[in-house]
Amino acid sequence: MTHDRSRQDIRVRKTATRLADGRELFYFDDSEPYVSGAATRRLDDPRPLPERFAPVPGPDGTPRPVTGPEMRYDVLTGEWVPMASHRMNRTFLPPADANPLAPAKPGAAYSDGEIPAEDYDVVVFENRFPSLMRLPGQEDTVTPLDGEELWPTRPAVGRCEVICFSPDPSSSLATVGPRRMRTVIEAWADRTTALGALEGVEQVFCFENRGKEIGVTLHHPHGQIYAYPYVTPRTATMLRQARAHRERTGRNLLRDVLDAELRSGRRVVAESEHWVAYVPAAARWPVEVHLAPRRDVPDLPALTGAERDDLAEIYLRLLAAGDRFFVADGAAVPLPYIAAWHQAPVREGRDDLRLHLQLFSVLRAPGKLKYLAGSESGMGAWVSDTTPEKIADRFAEVMA
């Protein structure tokens, strides 16, 4: 299946196929001859993979139905915790010639790569080792663990996808250029819409982990997209605060935050026609910056073509500034970071929450990490190693 999607002068062609085990894969093309449909990326997957939902041999050799991850409810915090034990054996720092996110090599013998085409622009596919997955015909029912009503369990229904930003393993999202960044934004928006329409999905989260310090297991420019069957704890907390703020003031909390940062100006590090980048007044991480649209929108699909164009430019500026934030021995230190898109849930809080990016790093100095030790991990009581104003001053110095 293919279709074209246009936003002003942007054209991105989306082509869908399935991998050998049945997982979905989508090419998002912006280059010729693919964007016009004159040619199509490779759609068949020659790998001898078993169907992902096929019965699997048990300890006695008898085929048994495949099982998916489950979630358990933490009665002390009110949070669902997915248990995905199969991820213990997922790919970990493979050698360069076994990178599963790289394009297929022309004429090469079979290798267990995830992308059949010999080249691509942007590609999205279902994660082979997902934390969240709905089995065919599976009902999302709550059952008590060990017969105890205090410990509810549910299937960890949902979906996890991988998005590859570039076919070049040595590149990064910061170096793809505005045209390709714009295609990434189209892919994020497309998948947010599609995943939000799936049965049982309550929230869609687009994010990127970058750097070994963050825990990245594949050194290739890529991110992930999670479709959760619940509203995540961070979002639930923001929603609770936003509703309390609306009850007191009648206004949107995140709108008021952006307006207050603009009035102060002390922590604003970049502005464009449609976007504002600022260090939040209570920043927790040693490097942290938020990027918010000037217009109130709940999620990425709600952005106009002009807002997406502008985002492609300022997002790359922000990532480039992050890579200049620290210097060691006269050379810039590539920033390990998490880039997290906070979007309103699918159904709940659409008028109370507001789209924004949170870009942050655990690096507090070259070669030194902020560890989440006793206070942060044990009590959830954050202690910052710097001040938001110092972070903003440094961003202002390195922002192009």
TrEMBL record:
Membrane-spanning parts: none
SUPFAM superfamilies: HIT-like (SSF54197)
InterPro entries noted in UniProt: GalP_UDPtransf1, GalP_UDPtransf1_His-AS, GalP_Utransf_C, GalP_Utransf_N, HIT-like_sf
E.C. code: 2.7.7.12
Enzyme class: transferase
Chain positions covered by the region annotation Disordered: 38-68
GO molecular function, one term: UDP-glucose:hexose-1-phosphate uridylyltransferase activity
Family listed: Belongs to the galactose-1-phosphate uridylyltransferase type 1 family.
PANTHER family, alphabetized: GALACTOSE-1-PHOSPHATE URIDYLYLTRANSFERASE
Protein name (database record): Galactose-1-phosphate uridylyltransferase
Species annotation: Georgenia faecalis
